[in-house]
Amino acid sequence: MNAPSASIAIPVDLANPGQFFACCGLLELADRLWFGAEGRFDRGHFLLIGRRECSLRALLDKLAESTVANTMTPIQNARLEELSSMKKNQREAIPGLGDEKKSLESLRRELPIVLTGAIEFRVDWFCDEFSGGSRFKTWAGQQSVLDIAKAMHGGVTRAINEPDSSLWGNVRGIGLPFNFDSDLGGQGSALDVGFSFDPLAGSEVTRIEVTCRPALELLCFIGLQRFRPREIPRENRFVYTAWNDALPPSVAAAVACGAVGVGDGLLHEFKLLYRTKYLKSFLPAIPFQGDHDERAERI
């Protein structure tokens, strides 16, 4: 006999691609915690359907209890700590130590992220050059994906412990986000403000604290591991489908990218904003306008 099911209704703005893929991330984690979880979109909400013990607070608590790290080995981490503790002239006195430190620092910035503990999950889509997952990497090469993921994870922990907090609530002063939230993605770039935030971050006096929605950012980061939009080649347009039948993540991912058609799902498209040569953001989505062939047929 199947366990009784529970349904969680989460408000979602389908014009925000970050929120859409964050809901996909929720479904992914719910299925890890309560095997057999399903989800669907319905009239401005994402419905998460799972076992009786399934609740949004329980899921977020498990996420907060998990540890965020990367795939560096304990030996590599210890060696980086050792080299970082040395004075610069000590490293320069021994050939190769400077290059070794730079190599380890690069690994720390760029290697896949792993959640361990209450939730076990690996995120490595941003390393995927073969099938194109890396095109959604929104941060620059010198930024650390580990530092961003840890900051957003800490923000989730802080947000769920605050009274009257919501899943999409804002938190200030936790660090720079991934820029998946299209409500904020086009704001606060160096071009918008007139100067770069980065040189000011080293001092508490000059540091500018950014407001972001950490649950959206972290859950979208997780959701993109399996769920991806369909790309319209050479047009910087990406299409996703908000499915309306209750589906497990294995099937929902195929529907979300349009590989499988189920029901009458709503299609939206969005573009990437190139803030600089390397930094990108998700822009707000609009109802899908059709690809170039479909538009040509209507003219």
Strand order in the largest sheet? 9-10-11-14
Low-confidence stretches: 186-196, 295-299
Gyration radius (Cα, Å) is 21 Å
Q: How many distinct beta strands?
A: 14
- Strand percentage lies at 15-25%
Helix content: 25-40%
Number of domains: 1
List the total number of helices: 11
Helix-strand topology string: EHEEHEHHHEEHEHHEHEEHEEEEH
Structural class: alpha+beta
Termini Cα gap: 56 Å
Largest sheet: number of strands, sense, barrel closure: 4 strands, antiparallel
Describe the global form: globular
- What is the typical, i.e. mean, pLDDT? 86
Question: Your description of this structure?
Answer:
This protein has eleven helices and 14 strands. By secondary structure, the chain is an alpha+beta fold. Strands 9-10-11-14 form a four-stranded antiparallel sheet, with no helix packed on it. A three-stranded antiparallel sheet has the order 1-3-2, with helices on one face. Strands 4-5-6 form a three-stranded antiparallel sheet. A hairpin with a 4-residue loop joins strand 5 (113-116) and strand 6. The N and C termini lie far apart (56 Å). The model is unreliable at 186-196 and 295-299 (pLDDT under 50).
Record keyword descriptors for this entry:
299 residues, alpha+beta, 36% helix, 4-stranded antiparallel β-sheet, globular, 3-stranded antiparallel β-sheet, disordered C terminus, single chain
The gist of it:
The protein is of the alpha+beta class and 299 residues long. It is 36% helix and 19% strand.
